[in-house]
Protein backbone atom coordinates (compact mmCIF):
# COMPACT_ATOMS: atom_id res chain seq x y z
CA UNK A 1 0.00 0.00 0.00
CA UNK A 2 1.34 3.44 -0.99
CA UNK A 3 1.45 5.75 2.02
CA UNK A 4 2.47 9.40 2.12
CA UNK A 5 4.31 10.85 5.13
CA UNK A 6 6.35 13.91 5.97
CA UNK A 7 9.96 13.40 4.96
CA UNK A 8 12.79 12.89 4.62
CA UNK A 9 13.28 9.44 6.14
CA UNK A 10 13.30 9.27 9.94
CA UNK A 11 10.48 11.69 10.83
CA UNK A 12 8.01 11.11 13.63
CA UNK A 13 5.37 10.78 10.91
CA UNK A 14 7.21 7.77 9.53
CA UNK A 15 7.58 6.32 13.03
CA UNK A 16 3.83 6.71 13.62
CA UNK A 17 3.08 5.09 10.25
CA UNK A 18 5.37 2.15 11.02
CA UNK A 19 3.77 1.70 14.45
CA UNK A 20 0.33 1.81 12.84
CA UNK A 21 1.35 -0.74 10.18
CA UNK A 22 2.56 -3.15 12.88
CA UNK A 23 -0.64 -2.76 14.88
CA UNK A 24 -2.87 -3.30 11.84
CA UNK A 25 -0.60 -5.92 10.19
CA UNK A 26 -0.22 -3.89 7.00
CA UNK A 27 2.61 -3.52 4.50
CA UNK A 28 3.46 0.05 3.52
CA UNK A 29 5.53 1.56 0.75
CA UNK A 30 6.50 5.03 1.95
CA UNK A 31 6.48 8.16 -0.17
CA UNK A 32 8.14 11.17 1.45
CA UNK A 33 7.03 14.78 0.95
CA UNK A 34 8.69 18.01 2.13
CA UNK A 35 5.68 19.42 4.01
CA UNK A 36 2.27 18.37 5.31
CA UNK A 37 0.35 20.25 2.63
CA UNK A 38 2.06 18.20 -0.08
CA UNK A 39 1.52 14.94 1.81
CA UNK A 40 -2.22 15.57 1.77
CA UNK A 41 -2.21 16.91 -1.79
CA UNK A 42 -0.62 13.63 -2.90
CA UNK A 43 -3.61 11.79 -1.45
CA UNK A 44 -6.05 14.00 -3.34
CA UNK A 45 -4.10 13.44 -6.58
CA UNK A 46 -4.00 9.63 -6.03
CA UNK A 47 -0.22 9.52 -5.77
CA UNK A 48 -0.72 7.64 -2.49
CA UNK A 49 -3.57 5.56 -1.06
CA UNK A 50 -3.25 6.85 2.51
CA UNK A 51 -1.75 9.94 4.11
CA UNK A 52 -0.63 9.72 7.74
CA UNK A 53 -0.32 13.18 9.25
CA UNK A 54 -0.07 14.73 12.74
CA UNK A 55 -3.15 16.51 14.02
CA UNK A 56 -2.43 17.37 17.67
CA UNK A 57 0.26 17.20 20.31
CA UNK A 58 -0.35 16.76 24.03
CA UNK A 59 1.71 19.87 24.82
CA UNK A 60 1.41 22.21 21.84
CA UNK A 61 -2.12 21.44 20.67
CA UNK A 62 -3.55 21.15 17.17
CA UNK A 63 -1.88 21.54 13.79
CA UNK A 64 -3.89 24.03 11.77
CA UNK A 65 -2.60 22.73 8.42
CA UNK A 66 -4.22 19.33 9.02
CA UNK A 67 -7.45 20.74 10.44
CA UNK A 68 -7.92 23.19 7.58
CA UNK A 69 -7.33 20.45 5.03
CA UNK A 70 -10.09 18.36 6.62
CA UNK A 71 -12.42 21.35 6.68
CA UNK A 72 -11.98 22.52 3.12
CA UNK A 73 -11.02 19.43 1.11
CA UNK A 74 -13.87 17.23 -0.13
CA UNK A 75 -13.60 13.50 -0.76
CA UNK A 76 -11.19 12.72 2.10
CA UNK A 77 -12.13 10.99 5.36
CA UNK A 78 -10.38 10.04 8.59
CA UNK A 79 -10.04 6.25 8.31
CA UNK A 80 -8.09 5.57 11.51
CA UNK A 81 -5.72 7.16 14.00
CA UNK A 82 -2.46 6.42 15.78
CA UNK A 83 -0.92 7.92 18.93
CA UNK A 84 2.87 8.05 19.15
CA UNK A 85 4.87 8.70 22.32
CA UNK A 86 7.33 11.40 21.29
CA UNK A 87 10.90 11.57 22.61
CA UNK A 88 13.27 14.24 21.36
CA UNK A 89 17.03 13.82 21.13
CA UNK A 90 19.68 16.42 20.37
CA UNK A 91 21.91 15.48 17.44
CA UNK A 92 25.21 17.01 16.32
CA UNK A 93 28.42 16.15 14.59
CA UNK A 94 30.60 13.74 16.58
CA UNK A 95 32.60 15.53 19.27
CA UNK A 96 30.36 18.62 19.43
CA UNK A 97 30.05 20.12 22.92
CA UNK A 98 26.86 21.82 24.10
CA UNK A 99 28.69 25.11 24.76
CA UNK A 100 29.85 25.15 21.12
CA UNK A 101 26.37 25.03 19.62
CA UNK A 102 25.35 28.31 17.98
CA UNK A 103 21.96 27.22 16.61
CA UNK A 104 19.42 24.43 17.05
CA UNK A 105 17.39 23.36 14.02
CA UNK A 106 14.07 21.53 14.01
CA UNK A 107 10.39 21.58 13.13
CA UNK A 108 8.50 24.29 15.02
CA UNK A 109 6.54 21.72 17.03
CA UNK A 110 9.74 20.01 18.24
CA UNK A 111 11.33 23.32 19.22
CA UNK A 112 8.21 24.31 21.15
CA UNK A 113 8.02 20.94 22.92
CA UNK A 114 11.65 21.36 24.12
CA UNK A 115 11.76 25.09 24.80
CA UNK A 116 12.27 24.70 28.55
CA UNK A 117 15.28 22.40 28.07
CA UNK A 118 16.73 24.66 25.38
CA UNK A 119 16.43 27.75 27.57
CA UNK A 120 18.18 25.99 30.45
CA UNK A 121 20.92 24.10 28.61
CA UNK A 122 21.49 26.06 25.38
CA UNK A 123 20.66 29.70 26.16
CA UNK A 124 23.22 30.89 23.61
CA UNK A 125 21.73 28.96 20.69
CA UNK A 126 19.30 30.56 18.26
CA UNK A 127 16.37 28.46 17.07
CA UNK A 128 16.05 27.79 13.34
CA UNK A 129 12.87 26.34 11.80
CA UNK A 130 12.92 23.47 9.31
CA UNK A 131 10.04 21.68 7.59
CA UNK A 132 10.75 18.45 9.47
CA UNK A 133 13.00 17.04 12.19
CA UNK A 134 14.81 14.83 9.67
CA UNK A 135 15.50 17.82 7.42
CA UNK A 136 17.13 19.45 10.45
CA UNK A 137 19.49 16.46 10.77
CA UNK A 138 20.38 16.64 7.09
CA UNK A 139 21.23 20.35 7.35
CA UNK A 140 23.35 19.87 10.46
CA UNK A 141 25.27 17.05 8.75
CA UNK A 142 26.09 19.29 5.76
CA UNK A 143 27.00 22.43 7.73
CA UNK A 144 30.51 23.53 8.66
CA UNK A 145 29.16 25.35 11.73
CA UNK A 146 28.56 23.99 15.24
CA UNK A 147 24.85 23.28 14.86
CA UNK A 148 22.49 20.77 16.44
CA UNK A 149 19.17 19.22 15.46
CA UNK A 150 16.24 18.07 17.55
CA UNK A 151 14.86 14.85 16.10
CA UNK A 152 13.66 11.35 16.90
CA UNK A 153 15.92 8.79 18.60
CA UNK A 154 16.24 6.94 15.27
CA UNK A 155 16.84 9.95 13.05
CA UNK A 156 20.35 11.34 13.52
CA UNK A 157 22.41 8.21 13.07
CA UNK A 158 21.29 7.92 9.43
CA UNK A 159 23.03 11.27 8.78
CA UNK A 160 26.24 10.38 10.61
CA UNK A 161 25.33 12.45 13.67
CA UNK A 162 25.97 11.74 17.34
CA UNK A 163 23.40 11.94 20.12
CA UNK A 164 24.41 14.88 22.33
CA UNK A 165 21.46 14.66 24.75
CA UNK A 166 18.36 12.52 25.21
CA UNK A 167 14.75 13.19 26.23
CA UNK A 168 14.67 16.96 25.75
CA UNK A 169 10.85 17.15 25.77
CA UNK A 170 9.47 19.28 28.59
CA UNK A 171 6.49 16.95 29.12
CA UNK A 172 7.48 13.40 30.03
CA UNK A 173 4.10 12.21 28.69
CA UNK A 174 4.64 13.97 25.35
CA UNK A 175 2.56 12.32 22.62
CA UNK A 176 1.28 13.20 19.17
CA UNK A 177 -1.94 11.99 17.58
CA UNK A 178 -1.77 11.13 13.89
CA UNK A 179 -4.67 10.71 11.49
CA UNK A 180 -4.85 8.07 8.78
CA UNK A 181 -6.54 9.83 5.87
CA UNK A 182 -8.02 8.11 2.84
CA UNK A 183 -10.51 8.60 0.06
CA UNK A 184 -13.86 6.88 0.06
CA UNK A 185 -15.99 5.45 2.83
CA UNK A 186 -14.87 3.63 5.97
CA UNK A 187 -14.25 -0.08 5.30
CA UNK A 188 -13.86 -1.08 8.97
CA UNK A 189 -16.78 -1.85 11.25
CA UNK A 190 -16.90 -1.79 15.07
CA UNK A 191 -15.97 -5.02 16.81
CA UNK A 192 -17.32 -6.03 20.23
CA UNK A 193 -15.64 -3.98 22.95
CA UNK A 194 -13.85 -1.73 20.46
CA UNK A 195 -13.94 2.03 21.07
CA UNK A 196 -14.65 4.36 18.14
CA UNK A 197 -14.70 8.08 17.48
CA UNK A 198 -16.82 10.23 15.20
CA UNK A 199 -15.37 13.54 14.00
CA UNK A 200 -17.50 16.35 12.62
CA UNK A 201 -17.29 20.03 11.73
CA UNK A 202 -20.21 22.41 11.80
CA UNK A 203 -21.20 26.05 11.66
CA UNK A 204 -23.84 27.88 13.64
CA UNK A 205 -25.81 31.09 13.19
CA UNK A 206 -24.01 34.07 14.75
CA UNK A 207 -26.48 34.52 17.60
CA UNK A 208 -26.66 33.93 21.37
CA UNK A 209 -26.97 30.28 22.41
CA UNK A 210 -26.35 28.84 18.93
CA UNK A 211 -23.45 26.59 20.00
CA UNK A 212 -25.36 25.37 23.06
CA UNK A 213 -28.41 24.51 20.96
CA UNK A 214 -26.29 22.60 18.43
CA UNK A 215 -24.53 20.50 21.09
CA UNK A 216 -27.51 19.94 23.42
CA UNK A 217 -28.73 16.79 21.58
CA UNK A 218 -25.31 15.17 22.09
CA UNK A 219 -25.48 15.85 25.83
CA UNK A 220 -29.03 14.52 25.98
CA UNK A 221 -27.86 11.30 24.32
CA UNK A 222 -25.18 10.94 27.00
CA UNK A 223 -22.30 11.37 24.54
CA UNK A 224 -18.82 12.39 25.64
CA UNK A 225 -16.87 14.88 23.55
CA UNK A 226 -13.16 13.95 23.35
CA UNK A 227 -12.31 17.27 21.77
CA UNK A 228 -13.92 20.54 20.75
CA UNK A 229 -12.21 23.51 19.16
CA UNK A 230 -12.83 26.31 16.72
CA UNK A 231 -11.16 27.43 13.49
CA UNK A 232 -11.68 30.70 11.60
CA UNK A 233 -14.37 30.45 8.93
CA UNK A 234 -12.06 32.51 6.66
CA UNK A 235 -14.86 34.88 5.72
CA UNK A 236 -14.66 37.63 8.31
CA UNK A 237 -13.17 38.29 11.71
CA UNK A 238 -15.13 36.71 14.56
CA UNK A 239 -16.79 33.98 12.46
CA UNK A 240 -15.81 30.44 13.44
CA UNK A 241 -16.26 26.77 12.54
CA UNK A 242 -16.41 24.16 15.30
CA UNK A 243 -14.67 20.78 15.19
CA UNK A 244 -15.81 18.03 17.54
CA UNK A 245 -14.63 14.49 18.26
CA UNK A 246 -17.36 12.32 19.79
CA UNK A 247 -16.85 9.04 21.61
CA UNK A 248 -18.84 6.41 19.73
CA UNK A 249 -19.66 5.27 16.21
CA UNK A 250 -22.10 6.95 13.84
CA UNK A 251 -22.08 4.09 11.30
CA UNK A 252 -24.73 2.12 13.16
CA UNK A 253 -28.06 3.11 14.78
CA UNK A 254 -27.55 4.41 18.30
CA UNK A 255 -26.95 7.50 20.42
CA UNK A 256 -24.28 9.00 18.13
CA UNK A 257 -26.31 8.75 14.92
CA UNK A 258 -29.44 10.00 16.69
CA UNK A 259 -27.60 12.90 18.27
CA UNK A 260 -26.10 13.89 14.91
CA UNK A 261 -29.50 13.84 13.22
CA UNK A 262 -30.75 16.36 15.76
CA UNK A 263 -27.57 18.45 15.55
CA UNK A 264 -27.98 18.67 11.77
CA UNK A 265 -31.40 20.20 12.26
CA UNK A 266 -29.98 22.94 14.50
CA UNK A 267 -26.59 23.81 12.94
CA UNK A 268 -26.20 25.95 9.82
CA UNK A 269 -24.29 23.09 8.19
CA UNK A 270 -22.47 19.89 9.21
CA UNK A 271 -19.55 18.04 7.60
CA UNK A 272 -18.65 14.47 8.54
CA UNK A 273 -14.87 14.19 8.88
CA UNK A 274 -14.78 10.49 9.68
CA UNK A 275 -15.84 7.62 11.92
CA UNK A 276 -12.94 5.38 12.96
CA UNK A 277 -11.48 3.18 15.72
CA UNK A 278 -9.94 5.04 18.65
CA UNK A 279 -6.21 4.42 18.94
CA UNK A 280 -4.68 3.04 22.15
CA UNK A 281 -3.60 6.03 24.23
CA UNK A 282 -5.82 8.36 22.22
CA UNK A 283 -7.57 9.98 25.17
CA UNK A 284 -10.84 8.02 25.00
CA UNK A 285 -12.44 7.12 28.30
CA UNK A 286 -10.93 3.86 29.51
TrEMBL record:
One of its GO terms (cellular component) is cytoplasm. PANTHER family: PREPHENATE DEHYDRATASE P PROTEIN (PTHR21022), PREPHENATE DEHYDRATASE-RELATED (PTHR21022:SF19). Pathway: Amino-acid biosynthesis; L-phenylalanine biosynthesis; phenylpyruvate from prephenate: step 1/1. The record marks 176 as: Essential for prephenate dehydratase activity. It comes from Carboxydocella sporoproducens DSM 16521. Its EC number is 4.2.1.51. Keywords: Amino-acid biosynthesis, Aromatic amino acid biosynthesis, Lyase, Phenylalanine biosynthesis. It catalyses: prephenate + H(+) = 3-phenylpyruvate + CO2 + H2O. Residues 199-277 form the ACT domain. It is an enzyme of class 4 (lyase). Pfam families: PDT (PF00800). Residues 2-183 form the Prephenate dehydratase domain. This is Prephenate dehydratase. InterPro entries: ACT-like_dom_sf (IPR045865), ACT_dom (IPR002912), Chor_mutase/pphenate_deHydtase (IPR008242), Preph_deHydtase (IPR001086), Preph_deHydtase_CS (IPR018528). One of its GO terms (biological process) is L-phenylalanine biosynthetic process.
